[in-house]
Task: inverse folding
């Protein structure tokens, strides 16, 4: 009798602990997103770092640290800081990659980080990453042709190049338009899974017309 | 019921009855507060950010021994393990991360291209877009300070040194015969395609103990580790054609390149000063294979090349000219492995093999040269910490040279030598802080041929003087065995030696780079001989000496004017030698006192074109005029050349390229050749040594075919 009681006790305790842990992750992620929404991007980033550190099997906190640093580099003027931010974004994205392999969302963010390098110094990184960016979009599209971020980012990159060379941009504008529909119907696989990009797609589509 | 109460009690204890406060202050090494540092307990969600006073404070449910982590961009992350109850009122000092970009860099003597260095002055693409370079990596480096203009030669002459004093390495492994053979009035080119390399480091002195058998300079070329996509490259040029293909697999890739050059059509259109019987033609093939292994990368590179020409050259002593014929075959193989053993140890191993065969015919002389050389190298690197790294290595060079000489009036003779060298070295990189770094090394070499042991200490020190500037000092001892032209006749000699003293200042300000370097070089044990030409009858000794001193300036700016990137190099060189068969100390004929290079690249958005210009100026070189007293007693007029190029992007994958060297058609003179005997008035007649052609035109069309359809070599100039 005593034995059974002990078992029950242990099971209940373990159960409660795991529920506890699960909710910690959710609470943490929710809090980080609320910091982000309130504009305190540094607080969000640091909380994601703590979560990433505490949850070595979750790719999402690493993914968002990478995304935050990639976005931060747009605002930054100091070349040394831009490089440090893009390096930080890369190192966290590498962790995300090691947890979740062949993930089209990670491929898109990787392409975005490389694009930021190209924007930072076209003469050098354009040659280095130009072809890799295209290849990343191709591969992501092969895996998930219905993902709106994949479809939009791929079309946006091709649109930019075509515009630059004075070639016809209509097919890419059409693809961007199609991505809007994918955005509308997109259901993220989990509460915290990537679900961004619609605003930028609308913005680019307006330029298209 | 009792169980229920127990569970409730258990729960409440888990959800944190015993909360503790973690608090403290984060400072840098100068006791300034660090704002915005991330402070947290490892493995938990509990943490906080430091305020403007560097203070943090947060509540945690954790108990017992825990690790506090403090991280901040460009500082080393700090870990502190203690009982949670003791983690309050802490005073934490963060150490600067010496891997951060603003750390001091040992830069004396070194120019880098690529992103493997924080002090890059060139980009890999600069090699192909510099107007005067014609796609040759050596040509692009000649626009950097520290090099002198020896227009008819084309090799790298660095800081008063001869061309042989510069050694070239591919992936850390020596290249024994890096240049294509040419006639003596046409500049040579590097044998290898610039597109295969993504990192170039050119050191004009004071280099690491890892490199030996170079008195003046080393040029380090690194092949691309990971090609970015599968593609086919097609090039059609006014002088030939090239074809390349890259194939990628899961963990490996293969790139192959082939090229054929024939100058016959060009010379038919634009005849030069040589009378060609058979104009230059050459073919080459290159292949690079890369394989990613679990702990490292294996690279294999091989190149095969053949070239030939046959011509009659003007000569003051032979009214009918001198007949010159050459056939050359060259094979180069290089393989290297770079890997990590664990967190602190990394390993490198590599070897190269060179086979070079040249068949010369000069008037009635027939000379056959055969060289078999190999180089094997092994090195280990140990990181004791991010601030202290140790490199140790061992290498073996072997050269087997044979020459066969045949002439109608003498019997055929064969001779040669074996030049084997064993070397070991050790070098430490020490960062005292983000602002002060030291590299100190020692190299020990044993020459089998001379039974001679040499010891070369090397040292460089760098100190950061402000956020954007730094000064560096370098000292080094360098040994090199005499070159093949001496060793084939006499092997009872010693190595030649130099000492370098370098002071460098560098300012790097957002797209603008300024470098100034002063140096002094002392040469000892140079080879001297007592005949007009080195041969078997000469008496040889190591009694020659020389010095070189000067100042090199470099300025590059790609920010001030939109779409314009330019650099200016200036070198002042004062050098005298007493070596070879010099009767007295004199400035040799490969030294220019003043050298100036201006390179510009301007991108014209609406034309999708990059227009490049490069201008080179060099003051006159010495020559001996036998009509007046003295040795190397006069100087030629100064050298001037303006080159232009234009790259036009037809579409994302097609590029049209034009270039013209010496647009203004300036008649440059490299020196004079005097008659062996005076004419009836007792005057020695002379002939100006001019380049084979004053100008050179080049037109090329380059097409890249890839799956994505968006790549070309120049897509973001």
Result:
């Amino acid at each position: 009798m005593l034995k059974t009681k002990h078992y029950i006790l242990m099971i209940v305790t373990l159960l409660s602990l795991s529920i506890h842990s699960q909710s910690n992750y959710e609470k943490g992620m929710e809090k980080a997103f609320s910091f982000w929404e309130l504009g305190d991007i540094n607080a969000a980033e640091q909380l994601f770092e703590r979560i990433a550190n505490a949850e070595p099997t979750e790719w999402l906190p690493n993914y968002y640290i990478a995304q935050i640093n990639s976005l931060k580099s747009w605002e930054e003027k100091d070349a040394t800081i831009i490089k440090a931010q893009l390096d930080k974004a890369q190192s966290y994205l590498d962790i995300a990659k090691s947890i979740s392999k062949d993930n089209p969302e990670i491929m898109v963010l990787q392409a975005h980080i490389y694009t930021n390098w190209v924007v930072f110094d076209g003469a050098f990184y354009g040659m280095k990453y130009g072809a890799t960016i295209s290849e990343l979009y191709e591969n992501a599209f092969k895996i998930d042709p219905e993902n709106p971020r994949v479809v939009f980012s791929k079309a946006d990159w091709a649109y930019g190049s075509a515009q630059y060379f004075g070639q016809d941009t209509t097919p890419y504008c059409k693809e961007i338009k199609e991505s809007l529909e994918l955005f509308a119907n997109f259901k993220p696989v989990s509460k915290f899974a990537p679900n961004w990009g619609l605003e930028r797609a609308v913005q680019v589509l307006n330029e298209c017309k | 019921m009792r169980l229920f109460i127990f569970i409730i009690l258990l729960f409440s204890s888990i959800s944190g009855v015993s909360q503790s406060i973690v608090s403290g202050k984060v400072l840098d090494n100068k006791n300034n507060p660090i704002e915005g540092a991330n402070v947290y307990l490892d493995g938990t969600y509990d943490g906080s950010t430091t305020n403007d006073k560097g203070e943090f404070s947060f509540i945690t449910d954790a108990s017992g021994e825990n690790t506090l982590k403090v991280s901040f961009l460009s500082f080393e992350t700090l870990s502190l393990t203690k009982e949670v109850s003791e983690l309050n009122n802490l005073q934490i000092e963060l150490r600067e991360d010496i891997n951060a970009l603003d750390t001091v860099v040992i830069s004396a003597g070194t120019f880098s291209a690529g992103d493997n260095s924080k002090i890059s002055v060139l980009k890999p693409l600069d090699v192909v877009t510099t107007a005067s370079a014609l796609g040759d990596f050596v040509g692009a480096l000649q626009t950097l300070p520290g090099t002198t203009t020896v227009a008819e030669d084309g090799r790298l002459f660095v800081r008063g040194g001869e061309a042989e004093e510069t050694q070239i390495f591919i992936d850390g492994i020596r290249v024994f015969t890096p240049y294509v053979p040419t006639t003596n009035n046409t500049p040579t080119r590097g044998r290898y395609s610039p597109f295969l390399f993504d990192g170039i480091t050119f050191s004009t002195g004071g280099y690491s103990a890892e490199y030996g058998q170079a008195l003046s300079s080393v040029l380090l070329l690194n092949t691309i580790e990971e090609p970015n996509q599968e593609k086919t490259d097609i090039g059609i040029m006014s002088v030939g054609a090239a074809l390349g293909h890259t194939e990628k697999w899961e963990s490996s890739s293969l790139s192959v390149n082939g090229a054929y050059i024939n100058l016959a059509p060009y010379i038919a259109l634009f005849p030069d000063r040589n009378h060609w019987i058979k104009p230059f033609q050459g073919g080459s093939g290159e292949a690079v294979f890369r394989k990613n292994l679990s702990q490292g990368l294996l690279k294999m590179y091989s190149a095969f090349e053949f070239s030939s020409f046959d011509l009659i050259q003007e000569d003051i002593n032979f009214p009918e000219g001198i007949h010159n014929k050459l056939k050359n075959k060259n094979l180069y193989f290089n393989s290297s492995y770079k890997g990590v053993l664990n967190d602190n140890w990394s390993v490198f191993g590599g070897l190269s093999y060179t086979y070079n065969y040249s068949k010369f015919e000069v008037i009635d002389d027939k000379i056959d040269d055969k060289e078999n050389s190999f180089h094997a190298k092994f090195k280990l690197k140990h990181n004791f910490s991010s601030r202290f790294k140790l490199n140790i290595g061992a290498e073996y060079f072997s050269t087997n040279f044979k020459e066969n000489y045949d002439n109608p009036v003498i019997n055929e003779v064969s001779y040669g030598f074996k030049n084997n060298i064993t070397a070991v070295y050790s070098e430490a990189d020490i960062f005292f802080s983000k602002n002060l770094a030291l590299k100190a090394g020692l190299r020990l070499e044993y020459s089998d041929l001379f039974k001679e042991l040499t010891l070369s200490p090397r040292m460089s020190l760098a100190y950061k003087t402000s956020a954007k500037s730094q000064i560096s000092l370098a000292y080094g001892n360098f040994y090199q065995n005499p070159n093949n032209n001496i060793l084939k006749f006499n092997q009872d000699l010693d190595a030649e030696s130099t000492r370098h003293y370098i002071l460098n200042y560098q300012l790097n300000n957002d797209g603008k780079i300024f470098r100034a370097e002063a140096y002094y070089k002392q040469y000892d044990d140079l080879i001297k001989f007592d005949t007009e030409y080195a041969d078997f009858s000469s008496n040889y000794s190591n009694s020659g000496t020389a010095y070189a001193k000067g100042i090199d300036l470099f300025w590059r700016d790609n920010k001030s004017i939109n779409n314009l990137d330019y650099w200016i190099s200036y070198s002042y060189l004062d050098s005298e030698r007493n070596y070879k068969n010099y009767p007295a100390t004199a400035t040799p004929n490969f030294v220019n006192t003043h050298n100036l290079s201006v390179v510009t690249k301007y991108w014209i958005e609406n034309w999708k074109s990059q227009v490049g210009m490069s201008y080179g100026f060099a003051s006159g070189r010495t020559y001996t005029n036998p009509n007046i007293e003295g040795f190397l007693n006069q100087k030629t007029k100064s050298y001037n050349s303006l080159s232009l190029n234009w790259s036009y992007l037809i579409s994302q994958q097609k590029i049209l390229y034009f270039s013209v060297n010496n647009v203004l058609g300036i008649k440059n003179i490299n020196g004079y050749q005097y008659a062996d005997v005076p004419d009836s008035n007792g005057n020695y007649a002379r002939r100006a040594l001019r380049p084979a052609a004053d100008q050179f035109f080049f037109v090329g069309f380059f097409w890249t075919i890839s799956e994505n359809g968006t790549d070309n070599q120049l897509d973001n100039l």
Q: What stands out?
A: The first helix of chain A runs from residue 2 to 37. Chain A touches chain B through 46 residues (CB under 8 Å). The CA atoms of residues 148 and 182 of chain A lie 5 Å apart. Residues 28-121 of chain A form a domain with the Serine Threonine Protein Phosphatase 5, Tetratricopeptide repeat fold (CATH 1.25.40).
